[in-house]
Amino acid sequence: MKKLFIAALALAAMLAQAQPRPVVGAYVLAEHGTDAVDQLQPGRLTHLLYAFLLICGEGQRAQDGAACQGQPAFGIAPHADQASFSAAFERLKKRDPQVQLLASVGGWGGSDPFFHLAASAQGRAAFVKQATGWLRAHPVFDGLDIDWEHPGSNGAVNGVALGSPADAGNYVALLQDLRAGLDALGRDMGKHYALTAAINTTREQLARMPMGRAARELDLVFMMTYDFAGPWTKKAANHTALRSARPGDDTSLEASVANLRREGVPAAKLVAGVAMYGRGFEGVKADGSYARPWPNEDGSVPFKDIDALAGMKAHYDKRTQSWAMVGGGRFVGYDDPRAVRAKLAFARRAGLAGVFAWELSQDNGEILGAMNAAQP
């Protein structure tokens, strides 16, 4: 019996090792420096995403002109901090060889070149060549994350409106070409290169991008289940709620998963988004209308500063299972560690790949700790 018991324990250990660890990911913004990377302890993250690589060529941002000088069409320009980040990532890999490092491309404000490069086979080929060449030159990275905001409409973020129905097919074609290019690079380098995407999850956006087809090329889909409320919305609300406040409202994690499952995206590829920051409003009335964003023009408050908000108290909303700091006509919705644990429990029940957060330097360690909770 003792031998059978020992054998059973050994088999259970082998099965446990065979099961992939749930995703615990986080983005780190280049402009915020390398401190958050250097302070990471081994085992805290499965995926760290570096935001963002700059795309040169048609649609490039005006402020990237100097960095893009001499770069080919749809090439990748280095950030001013590229060398320091590469060194920080190499130090991290020595401490934690299992962490996956992904280079994210695009982002809000940096996605305009996608509308141009994805529109033709030549443009896609040029970008794939440049992106895979960048990865070859930076072997510490394990793949690419495509953060095209957003196929069908860029919201005229840089003063030029871009987007058309053709973006739907172009998005899929770009991911297909990237998957082929990364597989070819992987054969040369002897490793698998991941391809992921960060996406807006509302029904409005999903009508513009065929995620069921797109997901076939992707290892993971990072659901940006935050920024559901902010200066761009008419009402004050928690920007990263687990559940929607009203039937039919899809501004929540739960509704986002339902949206993507209807599109045919496997639950096992979906990663739930967590916010390491709040969104605030001032002059909030009973009907949710407000006078202005607070405490700054975009209403953003790093989680590490939430407790320092004077004259405000934490309030839990059972309906949305979300937290806010309230007081003096002000409302700051955010992800409390308790809300993160609830999201983690939901992700497990729904069979999701795991959770990720934007953005690492805004945390004081409590949110990341909650994302690593063994039990909800």
Write up what this structure looks like.
The chain is α/β, with parallel strands linked by helices and 376 residues long. The protein has one domain: Glycosidases (TIM Barrel). Helix content is 32%, strand content 21%. The strands form 2 sheets. It has an 8-stranded parallel beta barrel. Strands 9, 10, 11, 12, 13 and 14 form a 6-stranded antiparallel beta sheet that branches. β13 (322-327) and β14 form a beta hairpin. It is globular, with a radius of gyration of 21 Å. The two termini are 35 Å apart.
- Counting structural domains, the number is 1
Summed up, the helix count is 12
Strand content: 15-25%
CATH superfamily: Glycosidases
Oligomer: single chain
The CATH architecture term is: Alpha-Beta Barrel
What CATH first level would be assigned? Alpha Beta
Helix content: 25-40%
CA radius of gyration: 21 Å
Main β sheet profile: 8 strands, parallel, barrel
Between the first and last Cα atoms, what is the distance in angstroms? Answer: 35 Å
CATH domain fold name: TIM Barrel
Sum up the overall morphology in one term. globular
Structural class: alpha/beta
**Number of β-strand runs:** 15
Residue windows where pLDDT falls under 50 for at least 5 positions:
4-18
